[in-house]
From TrEMBL, chain A:
Gene3D superfamilies named in the record: 3.40.50.970
A Pfam entry, by short name: E1_dh
Species of origin: Spongiactinospora gelatinilytica
Cross-referenced InterPro entries: Alpha-ketoacid_DH_E1_comp, DH_E1, PdhA/BkdA, THDP-binding
Top-level taxonomic group: Bacteria
Swiss-Prot/TrEMBL cofactor(s): thiamine diphosphate
Stretches assigned to the Dehydrogenase E1 component domain: 43-330
Gene behind this protein: pdhA
Name this protein carries in UniProt: Pyruvate dehydrogenase (Acetyl-transferring) E1 component subunit alpha
Gene Ontology MF term list: magnesium ion binding; oxidoreductase activity, acting on the aldehyde or oxo group of donors, disulfide as acceptor
Keyword annotations of the record: Oxidoreductase, Pyruvate, Thiamine pyrophosphate
GO biological process, one term: branched-chain amino acid catabolic process
From TrEMBL, chain B:
EC number: 1.2.4.4
A UniProt-annotated Pfam family: Transket_pyr
CDD domains listed in its UniProt record: TPP_PYR_E1-PDHc-beta_like
Biological process annotations from GO: branched-chain amino acid catabolic process; response to nutrient
Leader peptide range in chain numbering: none
Keyword Oxidoreductase belongs to the record: yes
Name recorded for this polypeptide: 3-methyl-2-oxobutanoate dehydrogenase (2-methylpropanoyl-transferring)
């Protein structure tokens, strides 16, 4: 293999800086160690993110969310993917990226709007530079390539980072995105969170390649793989990837090995396709515990820090509970808004049909109330 | 009692038992048995070669089915949800639909594409589309949708045996509907609509998820003195003009009910066919009750979007019983 092709291949083993227990792993790395400030921010965001995730799961059980895909266990990727970006950079999430969006600073209630069921996207994508959460798998990867290319054309120096799952790498759009990004040198980072399952289907059914990071070489995209439950390694590799993109060298592909500890969503039953033993193995590689141990050893994390951040997480959860337990204001007529820049005559007519229906319903309700 | 989901499962199982060439594949159809459990137990019973998970790619799934059908198999593939079949549209429109025609009849594609569709289950975006019109508009595809437990079994068996490709649309709202059926059996062939309720004053035409709503409306309408006939199309393509025409010629009035956005939808086709064939029998324009022409709304708003009993009853009021012009379109000017 030529040196050029060789350079596109990922490391032989997933990059890791920490052992499963959080001690320093042996080996040399092509990626610099992140600074303690970034690691502390990641720790704090993971603690808050995990609490948010648990609260969202609880709210789903109480019927407050239509559905919730948990990222419990994947916090290093959720948090890392956002913290390596600057404010102006763009983030392209899937449905699983709620914790990433909270890390980005979006109001948690706005993050959950889609899943609660009162809007398709609850936050302002332009304000946050975050695309709407994307459910049709891998389709957003092409958008990220296009947006990154647009930023390069305009010369803003911004990059885009797009998340996809292991399953989504089988979709054609993922491959088209890698190819477009490489051909047009779009400053985009593809982050594959390989949590080993696409609902019930294990990784072996998605690929016969040695690693999903090998998908890059055929398109001329340099790739790396990383222990996705090692927050130090995730931040190191993603920082390199973003720098690569920002410096004008084009796209970069990162495969992070991780695991979702919960079912696919609350509607799924993981016991139908995997064992508890397997999950237990991954539970022991907890990204939060690993980073805590690393930071404490170096004196970068104190009891006061953990106490303060736990309190912050509890506060966020309490606020989320309170606000999610209130029924949202619904505006049924709003469904006719923004279908086009201005409503067509037909939509105006249909809106009127619903308006008349709603006022008749209201009048009937009031009449009934007056009787009782 | 048996649910529609179980009837579909039984149809797949019976077809697999009868014909070794029948294979089932798609996303999560193996160990999980499909997200709606329609393929539950098939891998365990018939083996991994007969019912299997594929890589996650709808275009791949349908294209692979085309190839396997050319190679002598009868693939039955599952699209996980309506909107997730769109990546396969290229394969469906350019190959599944056209291969028989392009090969002057030499290569037929006896394959079935199962698609759970429609709303009413509180699903978030991309999980509630009524996509039947895309397929019905594509010559070469048969498009079928059951409204009853018995039909779920019968139509799926017909679909698997059919020499042509069939888009089999499963109303997910009805997956858990139940019926007391002694023995699941095959009933009518494709192209026969069913009169689910006989009536004399007007004909309600519906299919799939809208049939129960139409029947409920017919019951409610008796209070207002309407005796409604309810037709369940069963197969959108091939279309049963004979049953529909005979009914409307008798009742003189017709309302078409469907969840999909009305504009350029299947309901428009039905209305057009009825007025072309029944003009002299019609005492009122053929009206439609459909979803609005908006992207499927979020779960908390979907009940405002879907055709409801009330909205259908309101529409009956516009069927000119007292021979007054319909005021709804007055703003358009001229005389209605
Ligand atoms: C085009 C498309 N097909 C099917 C689905 C249904 N679906 C939702 S999530 C999912 C599995 C995705 O797995 P993966 O990409 O590994 O992401 P994960 O959920 O594990 O984060 C499937 C099949 C979809 N959303 N979009
Ligand atoms: Mg996955």
């Amino acid at each position: 293999m030529t040196g050029l092709a060789q350079a596109l291949l990922p490391s032989a083993e997933p990059v890791r800086f920490l052992t499963d227990e959080g001690a320093v792993a042996k080996g040399r790395h092509r990626h610099p160690v992140p600074d303690p400030g970034l690691l502390r921010r990641a720790y704090r965001a993971m603690v808050v993110g995990r609490r948010f995730d648990a609260q969202a799961t609880a709210l789903t059980k109480q019927g407050r969310l239509a559905v919730y895909p948990s990222s419990h266990g994947q916090e290093a990727c959720q948090v890392g993917s956002v913290l390596v970006l600057s404010e102006g950079d763009w983030f392209f999430p899937t449905y699983r990226e709620s914790v990433a969006l909270v890390t980005r600073g979006i109001d948690p209630v706005e993050v959950l709007s889609l899943l609660r069921g009162d809007a398709h996207c609850g936050y302002d994508p332009v304000r946050h530079h975050v695309a709407p959460q994307c459910t049709p798998l891998a389709t957003q990867s092409v958008h990220a390539a296009g947006l990154a290319y647009a930023e390069r054309r305009v010369g803003t120096g911004r990059v885009a980072l797009v998340c996809v799952g292991d399953g989504a790498t089988s979709e054609g759009d993922f491959h088209e995105a890698l190819n477009f990004a490489a051909v047009f040198k779009a400053p985009v980072v593809f982050l594959v969170q390989n949590n080993h399952y696409a609902i019930s289907v294990p990784l072996e059914r998605q690929t016969a390649a040695p690693s999903l990071a090998y998908k890059g070489i055929g398109y001329g995209v340099p790739s790396e793989r990383v222990d996705g439950n090692d927050p130090v390694a995730v931040l190191a590799v993603l920082t390199s990837a973003v720098e690569h993109a920002r410096s004008g060298q084009g796209p970069y592909l990162v495969e992070a090995h991780t695991y979702r500890l919960e079912s696919h969503t609350n509607a799924d039953d993981a016991s139908r396709y995997r064992t508890d033993d397997e999950a237990e193995k991954w539970r022991r590689r907890d990204p939060i515990a690993r980073l805590a141990r690393y930071l404490r050893r170096r004196g970068h994390l104190t009891d006061a820090d953990t106490a303060a951040w736990s309190a912050e997480a509890e506060e966020l959860a309490a606020d989320l509970r309170a606000r999610m337990n209130a029924d949202p204001e619904l505006a049924p007529l709003g469904m006719f808004d923004h279908v086009y820049s201005a409503p067509t005559p037909q939509l105006t007519e249909q809106r009127e049909v619903l308006r008349v229906e709603l006022s008749a319903e209201r009048a009937a309700d009031e009449a009934e109330e007056a009787l009782t | 009692m048996i649910t529609m989901a179980q009837a579909l499962n039984a149809a797949l199982g019976d077809a697999m038992a009868e014909d070794e060439q029948v294979v089932v594949f798609g996303e999560d159809v193996g160990a999980l048995g499909g997200v709606f459990r329609i393929t539950d137990g098939l891998t365990a019973k018939y083996g991994e070669d007969r019912c299997f998970d594929t890589p996650l790619a709808e275009s791949g799934i349908v294209g692979f089915a085309v190839g396997m059908a050319m190679g002598g198999f009868r693939p039955v593939v599952e699209m996980q949800f309506d909107a997730f079949a769109y990546p396969a549209f290229e394969q469906i429109a350019s190959h599944v639909a056209k291969t028989r025609n392009r090969t002057r009849g030499r290569v037929g594609l006896p394959l079935v594409i199962r698609i759970p569709y429609g709303g009413g289950i509180g699903g978030v975006e991309h999980h509630c589309d009524s996509s039947e019109a895309y397929y019905a508009h594509t010559p070469g595809l048969k498009v079928v949708t059951p409204a009853t437990v018995q039909d779920a079994y019968s139509l799926l068996r017909e679909a698997i045996d059919d020499p042509d490709p069939v888009v089999f649309m499963e109303p997910k709202k009805l997956y858990w509907s139940k019926a007391d059926i002694g023995r699941l059996a095959r009933t009518e062939p494709f192209g026969r609509a069913a009169v689910r309720r006989a009536g004399s004053d007007a004909t309600l035409i519906a299919y799939g998820p809208s049939v129960p709503v139409a029947l409920e409306t017919a019951e409610a309408a008796t209070q207002e003195g309407w005796d409604l006939e309810v037709i369940d199309l069963r197969t959108i393509v091939p279309f049963d003009d004979a049953t529909v025409t005979a009914s409307v010629r008798r009742t003189g009035r017709c309302v078409v009910v469907g969840e999909a956005a009305g504009f350029a939808g299947v309901g428009a086709e039905i209305a057009a066919r009825v007025q072309e064939r029944c003009f002299h029998s019609l005492a009122a324009p053929v009206l439609r009750v459909t979803g609005f022409d908006v992207p499927y709304p979020p779960p908390m708003l979907e009940h405002h979007h879907l055709p409801s009993v009330d909205r259908i009853l309101d529409t009956l009021d516009r069927l000119q019983r007292d021979d007054l012009p319909d005021t709804r379109f007055l703003a358009l000017g001229g005389a209605a």
